[in-house]
Amino acid sequence: MKFIAVSTVLASLLTVAVATVDTSLCTVTTDAEPIYIGENKDVLVQTASCPPSVDEVPAPAEFRAGTLLARQTNTCGAQCTTNCFAGTTDAPTAGDCSVIANAILYESQSLGNLFTINGPGAPTVPNTITMTFRTCKTFYLNQGLGTQSYCRTAWSDLVNWLNTECGAANGRHGGNCVAADQAWYIQVQKP
């Protein structure tokens, strides 16, 4: 009987819930001049500091004298699970999301394919990059314990994929793609 109770508790502790961040809790960086990217410089890029979406408690091995070990993870090409948001109310316009995807590709030609983003930390340390054009907004949120690198081309592909798979034509109003370990996700939605 004790074995069944213990195994039930362990199973419930190992269950991973897909969670998203309430972006209204994010602190958008507004100190610098706005940055616009793309061939026509019409996609607004901002950074933000967002709280983790789940109660993340690092493993004890990741603490050293009360601080986290510095590390960087290359998540480029990592698989993620797609989640679409039901209902077509407040769906981004497909063409607007395509403008963002194209702007990301355009920037990859001059800046290179990889970008880095900090992990969650102090409110002044951005862990989110957002891009907005008219009715479409996408963001990359780092929920991991350290700095991450990701590919601009993969982000562009995901914007197009989410825009198609999770668009109004399919009865959806956006969606996200969450890493298996929930250390990051990319989301497409209406601003």
Describe this structure in words.
The chain is α+β, with helices and mostly antiparallel strands. The chain has one domain. The chain has 3 helices and 13 strands. α2 (94-111) packs antiparallel against α3. The termini are far apart.
The ordered H/E elements are HEEEEEEEHEEEEHEE
Radius of gyration (Å)? 18 Å
Helix % is 10-25%
Structural class: alpha+beta
Number of domains: 1
Give the number of helices.
Answer: 3
The end-to-end distance, rounded to whole angstroms, is 52 Å
Mean pLDDT: 80
Largest sheet: 8 strands, antiparallel
Keywords: Signal
Signal peptide: 1-19
Q: Brief overview, please?
A:
The protein is α+β, with helices and mostly antiparallel strands. It is built from three helices and 13 strands, in the order αβββββββαββββαββ.
Summary keywords:
single chain, 191 residues, 3 helices, 32% strand, globular
